[in-house]
Amino acid sequence: MATISKNCSISYKRSIEPTKGFFYAETDKDIEPIVITRQKMVGPFSDQKSASGEGAKNLNALNIFMTDAAITPADTKNIKIKTCISFLPNWKEPVRCNEVSAIESLAEFMYKYESKTRLKKQTDSYIGNLASLIWTWRNHQTFTHQRKSTITFADKNFCFNVPDGYKYATMEELIEYNSNEKDVAELSEIIFDCFSGKAFGHFKLTADLTAPPGAEVYPSQLFPLSTPQTKIDRVSKELAFVPLDKGRRQAVFNSTKISHAIHTIDTWYSNSDDVKPINVNPLGYVQSSGVCHRGWSSRKDIYHIILDIENLLLKLEKNEITPDMDYLAAHLIKGGLFAGEKAQKEK
What we know:
Layout: E1 10-12, E2 16-18, E3 21-26, E4 31-33, E5 36-43, H1 48-52, E6 63-71, E7 78-87, E8 96-97, H2 100-117, H3 120-131, H4 138-142, E9 147-153, E10 156-162, H5 171-178, H6 181-196, E11 202-209, E12 216-217, E13 221-222, E14 235-239, E15 241-243, E16 249-253, H7 255-262, E17 264-266, E18 278-279, E19 285-286, E20 291-292, H8 302-307, H9 309-317, H10 323-334, E21 336-338, H11 341-346
Parallel strand pairs: 6-14
Antiparallel strand pairs: 1-8, 1-21, 2-7, 3-4, 3-7, 3-16, 5-6, 6-12, 7-11, 9-10, 9-11, 13-14, 15-16, 17-18, 19-20
Helix pairs in contact: 2-9, 3-6
């Protein structure tokens, strides 16, 4: 009998591994890294006390702060953001688990689910997120004209032009706009083969965004654990970087930020067909709104669904595919630790 107890702790390796994303400026002569600069700025006080008049004595004071900025050079024609992504077969079984029956049940579930679906829903959603450029976050929402995404595997390019003005283009809209349904089907098969362990290699991903000279671009933001004691030396915004020569710093995305965007495929939290995808996470939490779409009381969170593994396997035997199965498969592909009750209490 397929069972998983409440005390079971399960850990999966990530099946999608992006690298950092590197920012470049394209000029008439060359492609060069976009460099982060740090500068001292003066801004208005915008706290509630000043706005209400309680802190009026501060209104004439100087609000001096340090901040990072990544600005395109004076001869910029275009910006490029480049990353690499690997699709791996780590979803097939847990890397660590304290119950043998849980390992067997989850491995059986993924084997049967994959054999019946070929992970098509997840794979097509990942392609959509890569092609539509949502992994570039604020950048594709700022530079909304003449955008292009290129996915390269084994020297073959799969190119997608993104419609002007779109903040998010669905896979169906991209296929219609580019008339490349055959290319998408071929790319889907390649990714599935990588997921299955039949093909190996990494995918090169390039975002081309038309940007003017002197424009601010938006890499990842850092959150230092310690802050300087003097207020004037504190950096209000510190950006992610990799070091270059002569102390220069190239703007980058952290891999976790790219991963978060790729895994924004959960539409199964709602019964409606027309919902905005959210990131795959245990409670369906959306940070921007503070809403849990899979709260504990809904019984649609990852822990309730894992505990229902016996019922899911019975439905698979009957060739029934449910949204809970799609969500569970997406979660195991994403990877991570799912701590049981006992492990949580020990913490």
